[in-house]
Amino acid sequence: MVNFAALIAALWIIPGVAIIVMLALRRPRLAEYLNLLTSITVFGLTLAILVAAPDKPLVTGARYILLTPLGAWVLFCVGLVYLLASIYAIGYMRLLPEEKPRLHKYYALQAGFALTMLIAPLMNNPGIFWIAIDFTTIVSAFLVGFEKEAECIEAAWKYLIVVSAGLALALLGIILFYWGGTFVLGPTYALTWANLREVAPKVPETLLFLAFLLTLVGFGTKVGLAPMHTWLPDAHSEGPAPVSAMLSGALLNIALLGIYRFLAIVDSGGYSVMGHTALLVLGVLSLFVAGLFIVRQDGAKRMLAYSSLEHMGVLAIGFGFGGAIAFAGAMYHMLNHSLNKSLMFFGAGNMMRAYGTKSMSKMRHVLRYYPVSGTVWLLGAVAITGAPPFGLFLSELTILRGGILSPNPWAVWVMAILLILIFTAFMNHFRRMIWGPEPEPDTAPTLKLSLWNTLPMWLALIPVLVLGLWWPTGLWGFFQQAFLVQP
Amino acid sequence: MLIFHLGPLATSLFSLLAILALVLSFVMLASHWLKNHVYAFAAESWTIAAISASIGYYGHYPELYVIAALTALFRGTFLPYLVIRLVNRLDIQREFTPLLKPSSSMILGAALVIFSYEVSRQLGIALHLTDNIAVLALTCMFSLKLIGFLMMILRSEAISHILGLLVIENGIFLGSQILVPGMPALLELVIIFDLLTIVMAFGMLVRFLQTHAGTTSSRGLQKLVG
Fold first, then answer.
1. Residue B223 lies in a domain
2. Is B180–A204 a contact, with Cβ atoms under 8 angstroms apart?
3. What residues make up the domain containing B50?
4. What is the ipTM of this complex?
């Protein structure tokens, strides 16, 4: 029997201590290696928790901690993206010499951001889950605005205001859920996911559904589902590239986990179709909005941000279809997207530094100047649009397969068409970046990328390729188990 | 449950206080002087503290006295102090760019209250609580929420956005005190501190906005589109 309480405690204490040390010593070089060391440890711990994850949900830590298979999976994605982003951050932040005196603050914030994300998926109390999500917003807003340029601060401000207002709706939803429970369990009871699911069948439909819609819109704002996505392209494109990867690859999954847990409450109340359809419609809408904006995008990281919106739409559709197949596809997609989107943001960060611009129309002949890392980036772009033989192809196909059997088969067709549109648009942008007109002779990039800049791209690409060619049987069983138990 | 066995005196007291909080949000809606907003917000927070304390008294929840004291201290005193300090530092005395005149915003606010009442009434029918104080609590909760959003939409000054958000949070707090007074007190404590952190974060970002972006009005923030 693994002592999960000890593992989880280590998972929280190690980044906490690291933050204090970084802030106390104020040494930039030390902070970057300490952050790397922390991320390696955290990755190891999340992997250990995932491997040993219990089949049944486990409540521990004075009933405040809940470890479920889905929660362990989301936690693993956090650990993975944090590790990749920490390797990349060393290379990327060294390209910004003007930030050097403040680097220890950057790494402390990055570790703090990771810490808040390691806390949220393990909370057994929806209220405390909400607070943890709120803290992820506060910490990451400062990371988005870290470079202190006008655009960065504008993005950070918008992010904080829009998401806080959205989360306020979610809090209202949680209170209504609790209120519904007081009619059954009496005025005071423990606010836990399990209790809310237990009382759901006895709560009137109107109240249950209103509460669910409020939490869906609230946490949907945090996931970036359209039409509450307005903060997402700004925050993801203006923050430093490693932060963009963490926002996109790790944070969005956690908010989606919250939505799925509230969906499970509605399910056990017997209004499964309504709840799933609501999530599905938001997913389709996100895919649609993302498709339109990707077609006409010029900013490299903005395009990737809209791609995050697209993939959150795919995940929302996957969870919205319901059923074991679509659910397994969505879980697989979570991991694939975390890996692949990190790769894409790292590549975009490299190119932005190399060409000194955010605009894709000014990045020309990428492969001529960066044959290796440019190729990895291009392969990542092929993968992120869901083309074979990469992992995202398998997971998106599985979601589509699961959707045919769901109560909403129409969404399968809409999703397929929009994915093809996005594929075309993405490839068109990359075509222009690889060939396109000859650049001005003196604008050729001279930056030499270090191993820190390219290694994490390989570390992300290889698993995405492997996961596309081989879906481990053990993982399939794990997804089925995750589907059957409390999320 | 508390809402089922309240005496007439307690019911009228709660109704009075809840309506008072609602009226104070209209004061905020009608004025364009930022300091007036902050004072109205402070008064609203004290009203909510009074609701907490009286629920603690009538419903025998001693921990609510602590919540009431903390609400008065943090929401009613410390947060307004922080915001006033921010107003003074930024030297912005009033909202110059409202979309609508005060009279029109008040009519919109009234429409939102009617909408909230209708939603609450429907919920009340579904829960067999038609003549209960719960309907009033829900109405106030939803109204404050919508009025907060309205304030954020109609105004472009960063401080008005913070205040709009605080009104939303006040609405939730007001409703939760009456509807679920037995909710674990720990949660409410943490939410108070969470609010404090978020207002401080806002304060820092607003000052960054002024120094690095040169404006604190959302109309000046037009760089990121598409």
1. no
2. no
3. 2-213
4. 0.94
